């Protein structure tokens, strides 16, 4: 059996070296019931998807090592979660380039399949045109067998043509999605929601790191107290004012610290992207831009602001039966079926596209509606 090496670094991800075709590692690492690895012809080895620029997935690596060892292989694992990975901006640029390559590749693939399906379908229609419309199969005639075989062949060929056209539509949709990858990812509302999520993750990781640090220091103090002569050494340490040696970081703390650094880098990148969008003229709305009685534009419809909250705007419920372009508190009160209470909605500021004061809205509502010609 061969010696297999599993390595993990942030720039390269999790890779498996030393496997050969037919040695049985394929069924263990990949395939149905495998450990989730895939083989790359470009890399020439097995890799764990979505492992680049992330800390090691110890559960997947440990499961792969266990299965390979049980199969008789010698497995060596090298994990480096402390070394810095790629800059997030460079990684994002690489993802955008791959999306452009996918769009071009999928577009060619879809065009080829759609052209093949249409060509086959038109060819079948031309061949079928030689049979008169409504011509039945002459049972008992010498042409019966040939006629049936021809119809069966055309049916199978039409099925192939339909599958080719469906495959072409599928790849065309994939190409369109790949073309809009960067547009959707760098959209301002999406970016604002991503920044809010990253900030929450940073706060959570800071709390977790602090709890891990306190726990490690408590365990180190307990170990020092359990050693004979600890009281005397502690007295001398305080007398000489010497601090304790720093507690070595555990693998879990190393992975959490690395993840926090990567998250902070990603947050800084998207915050810079928002500043660029602001410089280009896009508006980032906030609670200081609205007051009670103003109108907010949400997905093509104006809503009267009932209350301004730190993260949301409270507006009348949008499903009250009034489908006009402007929903006011008065119209919502008349439209609601239940009496005494006004149903409301909350819209985040990342979903607001415009603002109008009450005076401006009154002028707009006073104007006559345009007549359809």
Shape: flat
Beta-strand percentage range: 5-15%
Coarse structural class: alpha+beta
The succession of helices and strands, N to C, reads EEHEEHEHHHHHHEEEEEHEEH
For the biggest β-sheet, the strand order reads 3-4-2-1-5
Figure out the total of helices.
10
Mean pLDDT: 87
Q: How helical, in percent, are the residues? A: 40-55%
Number of domains: 4
Largest sheet: 5 strands, mixed
Low-confidence stretches are: none
User: What is the number of E strands?
Assistant: 12
Distance between the termini: 83 Å
Gyration radius over CA? 33 Å
Protein name: DUF3560 domain-containing protein
Coiled coil: 181-215
Keywords: Coiled coil
InterPro entries: DUF3560
Question: Please, could you describe this protein's structure?
Answer:
There is one protein chain. By secondary structure, the chain is of the alpha+beta class. The protein has 4 domains: 3-79; 89-133 and 143-182; 188-279; 287-366, no CATH class. Helices cover 52% and strands 13% of the residues. The chain contains 10 helices and 12 strands. It has helices spanning 25-29, 58-70, 88-128, 144-179, 181-185, 188-226, 230-240, 251-279, 329-335, 358-366, and strands at residues 3-9, 13-17, 38-40, 45-47, 74-79, 295-298, 301-304, 307-308, 312-316, 326-327, 344-348, 354-356. A hairpin with a 3-residue loop joins strand 8 (307-308) and strand 9. Helix 3 (88-128) packs antiparallel against helix 4 (144-179) and helix 6 (188-226) packs antiparallel against helix 8. The N and C termini lie far apart (83 Å). The model has no long low-confidence stretch (mean pLDDT 87). Keywords: Coiled coil. Residues 181-215 form a coiled coil. This is DUF3560 domain-containing protein.
């Amino acid at each position: 059996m061969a010696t297999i090496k599993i390595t993990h670094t942030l720039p390269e991800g999790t890779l498996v070296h030393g496997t050969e075709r037919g040695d049985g590692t394929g069924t263990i690492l990949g395939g149905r019931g495998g450990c989730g690895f895939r083989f790359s012809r470009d890399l020439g080895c097995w890799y764990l998807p979505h492992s680049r620029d992330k800390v090691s997935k110890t559960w997947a690596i440990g499961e792969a090592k266990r299965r390979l060892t049980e199969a008789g292989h010698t497995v060596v694992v090298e994990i480096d979660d402390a070394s810095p990975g790629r800059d997030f901006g460079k990684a994002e640029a690489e993802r955008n380039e791959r999306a452009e390559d996918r769009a071009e590749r999928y577009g060619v693939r879809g065009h080829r399949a759609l052209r093949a399906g249409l060509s086959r379908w038109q060819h079948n229609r031309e061949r079928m045109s030689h049979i008169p419309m409504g011509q039945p199969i002459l049972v008992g005639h010498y042409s019966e067998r040939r006629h049936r075989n021809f119809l069966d062949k055309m049916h199978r060929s039409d099925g192939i043509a339909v599958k080719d056209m469906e495959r072409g539509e599928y790849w065309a949709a994939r190409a369109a999605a790949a073309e809009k990858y960067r547009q959707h990812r760098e959209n301002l509302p999406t970016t604002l929601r991503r920044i809010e999520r990253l900030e929450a993750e940073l706060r959570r990781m800071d709390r977790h790191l602090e709890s891990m640090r306190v726990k490690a220091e408590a365990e180190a103090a307990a170990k020092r107290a359990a050693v004979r002569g600890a009281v005397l050494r502690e007295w001398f340490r305080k007398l000489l004012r010497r601090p304790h040696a720093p507690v070595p970081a555990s693998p879990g703390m190393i992975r959490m610290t690395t993840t926090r650094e990567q998250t902070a880098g990603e947050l800084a990148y998207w915050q810079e992207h928002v500043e660029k969008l602001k410089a280009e003229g896009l508006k980032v709305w906030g609670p200081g831009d609205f007051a009670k009685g103003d109108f907010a534009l949400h997905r093509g419809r104006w809503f009267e602001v009932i209350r301004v909250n730190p993260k949301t705007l409270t507006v009348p419920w949008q499903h009250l039966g009034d489908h006009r372009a402007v929903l006011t508190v008065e119209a919502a009160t008349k439209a609601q079926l239940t009496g005494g209470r006004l149903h409301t909605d909350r819209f985040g500021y990342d979903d607001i596209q415009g603002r109008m004061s009450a005076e401006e809205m009154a002028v707009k509502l006073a104007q006559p509606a345009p007549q359809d010609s």
